[in-house]
Amino acid sequence: MDPVQLQTLLTWAAVGLITLGVGGAALIGLREAQNGARRRARLSGAIVVQTGGGGSAALAGVVSGVKRLGDRMAIQDPAQLSTIRAKLIQAGWFSREAVAVYLGAKAVALLLATVATILTVPWAISGGGGMGAILLAGGFAVAALLGPEQVIKARRRKLELEYMDGFPDLLDLLVASVEAGLSLDAAVSRVGEELSRRYVHLGEHLRFLTLELRAGRSRKEAWSSFAERLAIDDARALATMLRQSEEMGTSLGDTLTVFSEDMRAKRMLRAEEKAMSLPAKLMIPLILFIFPCLMGVLIMPAAFRISQTLMAN
User: Fold this and answer.
1) Same structural domain for residues 13 and 125?
2) Quick one: which of 180, 181, 157, 173 has its CA closest to 206?
3) Which one, of 188, 246, 178, lies nearest residue 218 by Cα?
4) pLDDT band for position 1 (50/70/90)?
5) For residue 234, is it within any domain?
6) Contact (CB, 8 A) for 140 and 207
7) Distance between CA 13 and CA 246 in Å, rounded?
8) Distance CA 40, CA 155 (A)
9) In what helix (H) or strand (E) does residue 123 lie, and over which residues does it extend?
């Protein structure tokens, strides 16, 4: 094959892969935007109207195909379903189809990486690619193997920050509700409705906790499950504290008050820790960017005058 034709083929293949990636990202973003709009409509009490436009139909077809592929992979490896489901729940995906969609997305990513690697083989064989073609194929493989997992980890970290930010407010509202005369279960239901306006995902977890308690699950198991879904130390400490308070018969209001004060102290300590670590974090940017510019501004005029003097002499 002529090198020009090979280069043209690889260029069009790269354009196709980039277009496919951008289109997939756009579809995922559209799906997230639609889910966010429906969630906000539910919280505001509005009626959610399901539209049947062409974009929604195409998105539904893509998700359905990925889900069918994920179902086949789940049947082949059922041992990891519980672990994957726990990770997806911690990342904020509660649907029963989330595991199938995740496994299907991993399979599609591997398939795309394989196709992209095959397309780079002629480039490497012809001698024009060399080490660049090998690195490009390796990049495709790494992106396919680690990409979906990294997406889940990034979403988990984002949600953990939201949970840690909203947990002191959750405890303050629980203390206020319990001291006002509500039971703990009724206080959880009330606090979940209030927190959903600002901390959407934390409010969803509280709603699930309320549903579990109403379904007859014991308070100890329900709070332990709540802590595992959030996967933060503050939630685990709260579940342990409530279990010990129930077993020992201590006052729930006093216990929540002490725990709430401890959470506020921890929040202040975290803020102070970030403030104290700021000078150390600014050291590298100062050395790499600001210090050379400052030295240039101070030294260049003197160096210019010295050079002019030496040239005159």
Assistant:
1) yes
2) 173
3) 246
4) low
5) yes
6) no
7) 63
8) 20
9) helix 98-125
Average pLDDT, the chain: 75
**For 85-109, what is each residue's pLDDT tens digit?**
888 888 878 777 777 777 777 777 7
Taking only the tens place, the pLDDT of each residue in 145-175 is: 777 788 888 888 888 888 888 888 888 888 8
Instruction: Report the distance separating Cα 191 and Cα 207, nearest Å.
Output: 9
d(CA 209, CA 194): 15
Contacts within 8 Å (CB) and 24+ apart, 238-245? 238/171, 242/184
* Pair 8, 123 in one domain: yes
Residues 13 and 113 occupy one common structural domain: yes
Number of domains in the chain: 2
State the number of CA atoms in the 13 A half-sphere of 237 facing the CB.
Answer: 15
Domain containing 218 equals 163-268
At residue 253, what is the residue type? G
Q: Is the pLDDT of residue 51 over 50?
A: no
Cα Rg, the chain, nearest whole Å: 28
Q: Which letter does DSSP use for residue 78 in this model? A: G
Q: List the beta strands (DSSP E) in 110-202.
A: none
Domain closes at, from 114, 129, 144: 129
Q: Which two tokens stand for residue 159?
A: 């949600």
